[in-house]
Amino acid sequence: MTDYHETNRGQFHFSPRCGWMNDPNGMLHYRGTYHFYFQHAPGSLVWDTMHWGHATSPDMVHWTQQPIALDPAVHPGELWSGGGVVDVGNTSGLKDGDHDPIAVFTGTQGVRMFYSLDGGMTFTAYDEGRVIAQPSGHESRDPKVVWHEPSQTWAMVVWSDDNGNGADFFVSPDLCTWERTDRYVADWVFECPDFTPMDLDGTPVWVLRDGRGSYVVGDFDGREFRTSWPEPRTVTMNPGGAAGHYYAAQSFENMPDGRVVTMAWQGLNRGSTWTGNASFPVQQRLASTPDGPRLFSLPVDELASLRESTKSWGPEELTPESALVLDDAATSYELEATFDRPETGTLVFRLRTGADGSSARDVVYDIGSGLLDGLPLPEPDGTLTIRLLVDRGQLAVFAADGAYYACYNVDFDTTATGEGVQLVTTTPLQLTSLTLHHLSSIWPADTVAP
User: Pick the catalytic residue: 3, 23, 142, 219?
Assistant: First the structure.
């Protein structure tokens, strides 16, 4: 049996009903439904033979787990990570009925395609599982496919180890036949590449990122990718790693409103029947900064649908003499504070506080050093907003309009009775506003069968 309300299971972060999960796969929108496929070992709490798990949502927030989408007992090849697309124009010629073909891509040492004609619920191996694209190198995996509008062709990027880490680029008119056209070699590119068209100050560009969240911005003409960046930046301020706080983020394809929305794997949280969860979806934009182009990340607006009750403070001046008690019992909530940045001192959000004054986790903004939670915060311009998403074993920190984004699994002491939230300052602080929203659970009220 599965208990969705275990003390460390996030209440608004997706986690599998049971078994192991890792990388997000094949994320796409189709006819009002968001599809989130994921690496899944349904009968194990550790990494094992990979399946593609499947969950659907009307809003990227409320998820319902569906039957296994790709099963090694049925679908040939190693079913490791990959992407998915909706073939709206039927370029593949696979359409048979009302539904547009949905194609997903996976495989190691060669790419295989599986397609669905029932809205992404069940899949058939294309050409009996034949390899349709062969990357270079000894090892390769994690194909991601995207539509290139200017050339009216499909593009695919695949990680491989040919002459070091890098990404092979392929193009196709029909999803079925592929031509390798380019290779981008860089030591930083490792696993799970994501390739996304974005806008930079009115100019179309492409963002290439890897599993750890490193990224560069460049140009793609439908065949070759070019960038002048000597070194990558990172999506999160705490760069990810496999089975860590943040890894293998992927963007949704076929978005109805053109937004770039990503979700990642968080591998450090586990319970009695499950291991791993997804990060909360963030919307990303690209903007110029004094240090060059940067990705900005903020929670999707659909988060507002979870708000149950709200407490507000400000405007007011906070003094160092006492803590501002925000709540006595909060485990899943959104907190947003806007204040005038003082010259010195520290501001501390104390999470899971108890009657004895202890706290399980502090998020500290050290104004003198410019560090937020120990990581560099882009210099704010007078007024600063810090936003926290806290969900039992998950914590996300946002600031500077999303230029700062850090994502964690947090090992709270589950035996502690304290569930308070406090704000403490060591210097007089002019608080413009502070809001705490309790967030509802996305899970069924009762324990459910596996």
Answer: 23
